[in-house]
Structures are given as C-alpha cells and as structure tokens.
Design goal:
EC 3.1.-.- (chains A, B); 4-stranded antiparallel beta sheet; alpha+beta; homodimer; metal-binding (chains A, B); 2 helices
C-alpha cells in the first residue's frame, strides 16, 4: 500500500534540519521524497508498523508533527500534481 | 471526500511566504491546515476541480510543487498522527 508521510519540523535550527535528514533517509528505504518534507512509501502492514516505530524514535515529539495517510493499493489514480517536480533524490525512482 | 494538499514552496523569500499565505487562505475555505504546508479539505468533485484551478492561479508553477491525494469518503481510519499538533488556525476545527 502507499503510505504518504508528511513531516512538519522547523528547519531554522540545525537540530531540526538534522532530524529532517534522518527522517528522509529512513523513508527513502521504502520510497521517495516528493517534496521537501513529504514522502511516498510503499509498505506492507508489518513494514508500516516498524517504520512508524522507527520514525517516532527519530523525531522530537514535543516539537515536530508527523502524519501518515494510507492511500491503499490502488493509489495511482489518487495522486495529482501541479507545478515543478523537484529532484530531491537523483537516484530515486521518477515521481508519478 | 478528503483531499490532502501538500504545498512545497520556498519560504525564504517574501514572495514564497505570500504565496503560502494565499494558498493557505484558499484551502481554509474547505478545510484545515494540519501542518505548515499541508491541508486537509473536504470537497465534492466540482469543488475539487475548482480548487485545483484556483490554486494553480496562486502558485508559481515554475518554482512551487503542489500535490493532491484523494483519501475518499472513508478517510477517518486512514490518517494517523505522531508528535505535536500545532494550532495553525485557532478558529479552525480540531485536527482529527
């Protein structure tokens, strides 16, 4: 299934930027970075549970906000894009 | 249906911050701001088409990225949250 992960962290501090980098690296194990703090991950139920646990360890739960949206298996028609497509990860797969 | 809107804009420039404010105001006509540049809107098909058109007029399509995710009507079990819940809009409805 496609899990969309949105991460709200203040990048005005070095700690915030570090956490964003760590969260990004973790999410990239399972998918791609489609915006600066938005990640699309393909996960099964077990991977999703593990990823949530791992991300909770990386973020500052007193300062940051992390949201997960389950788009299911038939997600291709559920995503639309306007504007530029940034290349956050040159080695990653193409953005849908 | 719930449409999740994620907006990637550089807020290091005054123009970028202005565009974010305008996009935010437009999205708040239909829903709530759950993260700095993430909006959850409840829309029917006609409203969704109109909102996409209106947002395209507000953003800089050469610089910004705007993505739409359709969570459908049965979205309540599809959203999970970790960490802090920012109050971006004090007058808005509570975050799920």
């Amino acid at each position: 299934m496609l899990i969309l992960i949105t991460y709200d962290v203040s990048t005005s501090s070095a700690e915030g930027r570090r956490r964003l980098t760590r969260v990004s690296k973790k999410c990239l194990d399972y998918g791609q970075r489609v915006q600066n703090s938005v990640f699309e991950c393909i996960l099964d139920t077990t991977q999703f549970r593990r990823l949530k646990y791992e991300l909770e360890e990386l973020i500052d739960t007193e300062k940051d906000s992390l949201r997960f949206y389950n788009l299911g298996d038939k997600y291709k028609t559920k995503v639309e894009h306007l504007g530029i497509k940034h290349s956050y990860d040159m080695e990653g797969p193409l953005i849908l």
